[in-house]
Amino acid sequence: MKTNTEGRLVIISGPSGAGKSTVVRSLIQECPLPLVLSVSATTRPPRPDERDGREYYFLSSQQFEELRRDGQFLECEEVFGRGHWYGTLRPQVTTGLKQGQWVILEIDVQGAMRVLEDKDLQPITIFLHPGGIEELEQRLRARGTETEEAITRRLEVSVGELALMHRYRHEVINDTVERATSEICEILKSYQERNACSKS
Ligand SMILES: Nc1nc2c(ncn2[C@@H]2O[C@H](COP(=O)(O)OP(=O)(O)O)[C@@H](O)[C@H]2O)c(=O)[nH]1
Ligand SMILES: Nc1ncnc2c1ncn2[C@@H]1O[C@H](COP(=O)(O)OP(=O)(O)O)[C@@H](O)[C@H]1O
């Protein structure tokens, strides 16, 4: 049983372009809980506005493989099947939880399913999506970070991801960043209250 001295694990998934990074950034700023983002490792190249250690730890395939062999990943996946690997670094999670933080994993659906296999972790699971494929496509294009081929691939993958939405405890529509942030914050606060009740 989790207690509120221990921190919680929070998984936020959703298709590429749903607004996960934007909403998570806003959540960490606005929500009065000790939230922290687990910074994943990836072999994909950084986008122009991304910094090593902030959005991701950007690693070579060899560095990633070494960490994998060393058991440093809680889970890792080749997302989008294009040779780019992503993984949750175990120390990011264990250190945060020990310090009483609520550690957010912004990870894909397959990675989330792997984390759910560990019955001790009891993550709060949230699926974020923009309400429609057309909106998703528009946001991906507006972000201007992907090639046409990458956008097509991401939209193809999103169909499979949306089909697994029912595996998440909460579904949140990112219509506006402010509203989605507020809804997720309320969801998380409801768990804090449950934790407090289970202590008495
Ligand atoms: N399994 C897993 N997926 C991750 C991890 N980090 C990021 N992802 C997912 O990888 C996918 C691609 O991320 P990214 O390249 O940043 O593109 P974006 O989602 O379009 O911003 C998204 O679904 C992320 O949630 C991780 O550590 N593990
Ligand atoms: N509620 C929203 N309404 C309109 N645009 C949004 C909204 N949330 C995010 N965006 C924009 O959509 C694009 C994708 O958001 P991003 O956070 O990068 O998505 P993800 O991390 O899920 O791939 C970005 O350009 C972002 O500014």
TrEMBL record:
The keyword Iron does not apply. CDD domains: GMPK. This is Guanylate kinase. HAMAP family: Guanylate_kinase. Its EC number is 2.7.4.8. Belongs to the guanylate kinase family. Keywords: ATP-binding, Cytoplasm, Kinase, Nucleotide-binding, Transferase. NCBIfam families: guanyl_kin. Essential for recycling GMP and indirectly, cGMP. It holds the Pfam family Guanylate_kin. InterPro entries: GK/Ca_channel_bsu (IPR008145), Guanylate_kin-like_dom (IPR008144), Guanylate_kinase (IPR017665), Guanylate_kinase_CS (IPR020590), P-loop_NTPase (IPR027417). Residues 7-189 form the Guanylate kinase-like domain. GO terms for molecular function: ATP binding; GMP kinase activity. It catalyses: GMP + ATP = GDP + ADP. It is found in: Cytoplasm. ATP binds at residues 14-21.
